[in-house]
Design goal:
Blueprint lengths: L1 H27 L6 E2 L2 E5 L2 E5 L2 E2 L14 E5 L4 E2 L5 E3 L12 E5 L5 E5 L12 E5 L4 E3 L17 E4 L4 E5 L2 E2 L3 E2 L3 E5 L4 E4 L13 E4 L4 E5 L12 E6 L4 E6 L1 E2 L9 E4 L5 E5 L10 E5 L4 E3 L3 E2 L10 E5 L2 E5 L12 E5 L5 E4 L1 E2 L17 H7 L16 H22 L1
Parallel strand pairs: 22-26, 27-31
Antiparallel strand pairs: 1-4, 2-3, 3-5, 5-7, 6-32, 8-9, 9-10, 10-11, 12-13, 13-16, 14-15, 16-17, 18-19, 19-20, 20-21, 23-24, 24-25, 25-26, 28-29, 29-30, 30-31
Helix pairs in contact: 1-3
The structure holds 2-acetamido-2-deoxy-beta-D-glucopyranose (NAG) (8 copies).
């Protein structure tokens, strides 16, 4: 009697375990597709990812905008081997790739999306905004919109002191590869044109970031023929609207484009990562903005594959790299983390927010390593997620598990 009920208990326990694992892998399977040319905007502890282009094996046919909008919650610790993305409605979302994005607006809580490519002919507005508080997309009416072209492959850099976004260079049907500066005031919703005198040569896919002295620094990129040098930097003074050029020294990176550029958490070093035709042992440099010298920092941790056409954001003490070309989703996470705490650089798989005092999440200790492999692919029918070829894997594994269960049951009940 006792043994019999024990067997029934075991049976139900195992069935529940299997249901639990299947549900867990389905919940976890809400993984976005790999992508390039997306936008990544950090607002109020959330890293919002919009669109981008899907990656296919034939680079000439992959111009398909991904109509997906989702975020990563950075208010708490996470592990890049087990990311929990939150998908947002994609109903009013613009379909875009190679657009520029920045956080702006009166309350600093709005994503501004400018330019870029779209496959959708009904979706060609120049600027869209997403209010993160009210979860709404709108097409704002912006004054002075005469002669503002829809540029692509450029950076949007905002100066928070006046809420203006600086949109330098890029490519457009009207201007080709340009060196003009469009200025979009996100508070008053009006365009201005920046100074052209002493501007850098026309370029796209360049690096740009705002410095604490309200100058935007620009370097590298592509002029339509070749990669551009990183031994010279261009500074746009956003207060006086004046361009300056500076020679830089040190360990100068080779000419490159499609890399990411951020100002490190020390407010002094500009970190560039990746780029087209760059090897991973040569993928990261820092420009010291005080003495204008490039150097290669000592970095611990697992060196990731080189990426290009990715994005990078600074979140707390971390540089958070998202998506791009150059890695394999089975081997590396869509997110890379560079821990920059106290200028001791380390590639990390664990993110910790600044205010977090809890211990680091223990990742692989709680579950056997095989589980982490079964759980990544997609088997959900959620509209946002896509069913990939790897869908088959969890089904096979579930099948094997059920098989094992029946062998055990057969043994127990014989
Ligand atoms: C907007 O956010 C930035 C940091 O992302 C901050 O430096 C700036 O002070 C904020 N501006 C306002 C008006 O809150
Ligand atoms: C728009 O551009 C055209 C041609 O470049 C120029 O002739 C015209 O004056 C411009 N209009 C304004 C309002 O700047
Ligand atoms: C543009 O920059 C030049 C110097 O590079 C300066 O002389 C000129 O006044 C600036 N023009 C405007 C409109 O700010
Ligand atoms: C890297 O480490 C070596 C050996 O510890 C040291 O000599 C070198 O100065 C370090 N480089 C940087 C950029 O800190
Ligand atoms: C980041 O680096 C600092 C200093 O090296 C270290 O104390 C901290 O634990 C690291 N954070 C993570 C999440 O690894
Ligand atoms: C960190 O602060 C954010 C708000 O700024 C909050 O949402 C989050 O819960 C905090 N995290 C911890 C661990 O206190
Ligand atoms: C993955 O993350 C979720 C929470 O987002 C957590 O419940 C789960 O235990 C994690 N799985 C592993 C294998 O760490
Ligand atoms: C999944 O991707 C294919 C192309 O790879 C696309 O045709 C299809 O619309 C996508 N499905 C969803 C739900 O995004």
């Amino acid at each position: 009697m006792l043994i019999r009920s024990l067997k029934w208990f075991l049976l139900w326990w195992m069935i529940l375990q299997i249901i639990f694992e299947v549900v867990k892998s389905q919940v976890k399977s809400l993984q976005p597709q790999e992508r390039i040319s997306h936008t990544a905007t950090y607002i109020n502890n959330k890293l919002y990812i919009l669109g981008g282009e899907s990656i296919t094996t034939n680079p000439t046919t992959n111009e398909i905008a991904l109509k997906e909008f989702f975020y990563l919650d950075c208010s708490k610790s996470f592990d890049t081997t087990n990311l929990s993305w939150e998908f947002l409605s994609n109903i009013q979302v613009p379909t875009r790739w190679s657009a520029a994005s920045a956080k702006g607006g009166i309350n600093n809580d709005t994503i501004f999306i400018y330019g870029g490519f779209s496959n959708d002919e009904n979706d060609l507005n120049l600027v869209y905004t997403y209010n993160t508080k009210s979860d709404t997309w709108i097409i704002p009416k912006i004054l002075n919109n005469f002669n503002i072209t829809s540029k692509k492959n450029l950076e949007a850099i905002i100066n928070y002191n006046d809420g203006k976004i600086y949109l330098f260079g890029g490519t457009s049907d009207e201007l080709g590869i340009s060196n003009d500066m469009v200025i979009l005031d996100t508070i008053n919703l009006v365009y201005n044109i920046g100074n052209l005198t002493n501007a850098p040569t026309p370029r796209f896919y360049y690096g740009a970031t705002l410095l604490p002295n309200q100058n935007i620094i620009y370097f590298g990129g592509n002029d339509g023929k070749e990669a551009l040098d990183l031994d010279v930097v261009y500074l746009y003074d956003t207060i006086n609207n004046i361009w300056n050029t500076n020679k830089v020294t040190g360990l100068i990176p080779s000419k490159r484009y499609l890399f990411s550029t951020v100002l490190g958490s020390d407010g002094r070093g500009i970190i560039i990562f990746g780029g087209f035709n760059v090897v991973n042992t040569d993928s990261l440099y820092i420009l010291d903005t005080i003495n204008l010298e490039w150097y290669v920092p000592n970095i611990t941790g697992q060196l990731p594959a080189n990426r290009y056409n990715h994005k990078a954001n600074v979140i707390g003490n971390f540089m958070v790299v998202s998506f791009g070309y150059g890695y394999q989703q089975e081997k590396e996470s869509d997110i890379l983390l560079l821990n920059m705490t106290n200028e001791k650089y380390e590639w990390s798989i664990v993110f910790k927010p600044l205010n977090d005092t809890l211990p680091l999440p223990s990742t692989s200790i709680s579950s056997p390593p095989t589980m982490t492999q079964t759980s990544s692919p997609t088997i959900s029918s959620e509209p946002q997620s896509n069913i990939s070829s790897t869908t088959i894997k969890p089904i096979i594994i579930a099948g094997v598990l059920v098989g094992i269960l029946f062998i055990i049951l057969g043994y127990l009940f014989l």
